[in-house]
Write a structure and sequence with these properties.
mainly alpha, 2 domains
């Protein structure tokens, strides 16, 4: 059996070299992880924190965010044809007009119009959570307000949202609609008109 001579300078130098190499490898891996995290944080913003809360561990959350990026890269996202753009813009203006007399119904219409616009741009039909995830890849700054609008729309179904909350939801939907339609805000009107406060039927 070979005996390790701890006083042998060659053995000590070899051991130190191995330890230094391991330390460099660990440092490089940590630095790569840190850079990856920084890139994802910049890209996803608040959605990065949402993914952390949802998935618990950083590596799992980051893997799910990267899955979103790969999934959306597989879609054939495209600009709207002029006729589709004009039709959706006209539908949006009708939706805003409905808000004055029927805010709850208008919010439901707005949600449906955003879904129709997404599909017209090449996103697949999907449930809300997958739509939000898909949007976060290239429109991360709007996803938090999209989630908020959707939550208000869900409460509105049971008549549990105030008129002011419904107006907030419309503003959120309009911001997303503007960005996806590539319009300037004046084309879709700046704000939905405030209806007179009353019980929503």
């Amino acid at each position: 059996m070979n005996h390790i001579d701890l006083t042998n300078p060659e053995w000590l130098i070899g051991a130190v070299a191995v330890l230094l190499a391991l330390a460099v490898i660990v440092a490089l891996a940590a630095n790569r992880r840190r850079r990856s995290t920084d890139v994802l944080r910049r890209r996803f913003g608040a959605e990065y924190d949402y993914a952390l809360r949802t998935h618990g561990r950083r590596n799992r959350a980051e893997a799910r965010l990267m899955d979103r990026v790969k999934r959306v890269q597989g879609y054939k996202i495209h600009d709207l044809a002029p006729a589709d753009r004009e039709r959706l813009l006209a539908d949006w203006k009708v939706c805003l007009a409905h808000f004055v007399s029927y805010p709850r119904g208008a919010v439901t219409e707005a949600d449906e119009l955003v879904n129709a616009l997404l599909q017209a741009r090449g996103f697949p039909a999907a449930g809300f959570e997958e739509r939000a995830e898909d949007l976060s890849v290239d429109h991360a700054r709007l996803v938090d307000s999209y989630r908020s609008a959707n939550a208000i729309a869900a409460r509105a179904v049971g008549n549990d949202a105030s008129t002011e909350e419904l107006r907030t939801a419309m503003l959120h939907y309009r911001s997303l609609f503007d960005e996806l339609l590539n319009t300037s805000p004046h084309e879709t009107e700046v704000t939905p008109e405030r209806p007179r406060l009353r019980k929503i039927a």
